[in-house]
Amino acid sequence: MTDTMTDPNVRGDMRMFRKKEKRWVMKTEKGQWGEIWANFRKNGLAMAAFSVLLLIIAVALFADVGMDYTSKALGQNAYERLLGPSAAHWFGTDQYGRDLFARVIYGARYSLLFGVGCTGVALLLGSVIGAVAAYYGGKLDSILMRLLDALMCIPSMLLILLLVAVMGSGLVSLTVAITITSVPGFTRMTRSVVLSVVQQDFIEAARSCGTKDRNIILHHVIPNAVGPIIVNGMMNIAGIIMSAAGMSYIGLGINPPTPEWGSMLSEATQFMRTSPHVVIFPGLAIVITSLCFNLVGDGLADAVDPRQRD
Fold first, then answer.
1. How many CB atoms lie within 10 A of CB 1?
2. For residue 260, is it within any domain?
3. Which of 10, 122, 164, 199 is most buried (CB neighbours < 10 A)?
4. What's the chain's Rg over C-alpha atoms?
5. What distances in angstroms separate CA 133 from CA 130, 201, 213, one per listed residue?
């Protein structure tokens, strides 16, 4: 009997099937994201938060166009200490005469770097670990999950404090510490989502057709699991921004005179009664940015939810 897999006609049919499968997957992904975007636009509050986020990101990226970092954000002027908001200084000045508006704008770079950067790296690592554990299961899944359980037994803030104390305060050490503490949560979440996907009939159909595990994970598992993963990551950004600001506030993050919202609040605490603007504006920046990320995450969650679709 002739082996069907060695038959040239069968091999040709399999290649044609996989090409059609790839085109169908790409078309499905495009339609899926278009549908999610259409549902997201229906949420007025989420769209407003998304617009504010785009404005914050744009202002932070192009801050150098209208303000000089050295003279505005770092330059001290003893004659302009603790001035209130005015046309010359929109947010007033701090205790060293530095322009508070410039410091808040440049501080957005560090907060966004912490939030988006740490979330992106942790999301990538957690997604890979969680997807591999869920797809292959068995002993590999048990070992990885038990290691993560041991890591998650330690409170995240305590673990961040421990890692920063070992590595020293600063941008790099704080970024590494926050990223490490964020990986277990993303891994758990990704594993649960992927487990629900790999049990579907189309995954078994792809396996029966001889599709490689790598292609199944890339073209079938991840496209069907990426929605909840991105939503979870978006909502996690706000928590990371708050954690980074808290660490800088207690002196274990970015140290002065570098403009960072948490360290700015720490420096301004003693002037809260006499010059409240030095506390209000950095605090509002943290609250507004975190709130916008949460609202966008909520909007994405509603858009991804199949029950919200027509």
1. 3
2. yes
3. 122
4. 25
5. 5, 20, 13
Name which of 84-93, 219-228, 237-246 the model is least confident about: 219-228
Please indicate, yes or no, if residue 2 is contained in any of the structural domains: no
Cβ burial, residue 158 (10 Å; 0-12/13-18/19+): exposed
Give the pLDDT confidence score for residue 14 in this predicted structure. Answer: 53
Residue linked to tokens 């907060």: 111
- Spatial separation of the C-alpha atoms in residues 157 and 245, rounded to whole Å: 12
User: How many C-alpha atoms does 147 have within 13 Å on its Cβ side?
Assistant: 11
Which residue shows structure tokens 């305590």? Answer: 158
Contacts of 131-134 with C-beta under 8 Å, sequence gap 24+, read: 131/190, 131/191, 131/194, 131/217, 131/221, 131/222, 131/225, 133/187, 133/191, 134/190, 134/191, 134/192, 134/194, 134/195, 134/198
Environment class of residue 298 by beta-carbon count within 10 Å: exposed (0-12), middle (13-18) or buried (19+)? middle
Q: Is residue 288 part of a domain?
A: yes
Please check whether residue 7 lies inside any domain of the structure: no
**How confident is the model over 180-211, as pLDDT tens digits?**
888 888 888 888 888 887 777 777 777 777 77
Amino acid identity, position 295: L
Answer whether 229's CB lies under 8 Å from 223's CB: no
Provide the residue range defining the domain that includes 296: 16-76+87-308
Q: Tokens representing 168? A: 């020293």
- The tens digit of pLDDT for each residue in 59-69 reads 988 888 878 88
pLDDT digits 0-9 by tens, 100-148: 999 999 999 888 988 888 998 998 888 888 888 887 878 888 888 888 8
Nearest of 296, 300, 282 to residue 111 by alpha carbon: 282
